[in-house]
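Give me the 3D structure for DUF485 domain-containing protein.
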Amino acid sequence: MGNDASRDAAGTTAVQPDFQLVQASPEFRQLRKHHRSFVFPVAGAFLLWYFLYVLLADYAHDFMSIKVAGNINLGLVLGLLQFVTTFGITAWYVSHANKKLDPAAEAIRNEIEHHDFDADAATDGSSR
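Predicted structure for DUF485 domain-containing protein (128 residues):
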């Protein structure tokens, strides 16, 4: 599938794509933009939420020890919400990747596999 060893064993030389040409393509730039526009804001928001929890746990003992139900206090609830947030963000990212990132990455991969980004094609102006 992805790594066809039989092709290399047959004595044919695999054509190496020009990865700098791939990175300079508008399709790759758009893919990178979609990835970064999701990952950086969500990661930043989660880190803020995490550090808020750590700071509250360290400096706001009275607030975190507020009883919610029985022996369950606000600190425990917020701590468990860290896990819920992590799983929620993971599910959200998977959904985002399936809708936007994976189709674009697949298209770029198909272009690479069909030699649209060959180093030879880039230098002599022809494609195979």
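The chain has one domain: 18-119. Let me know if you want a second pass.
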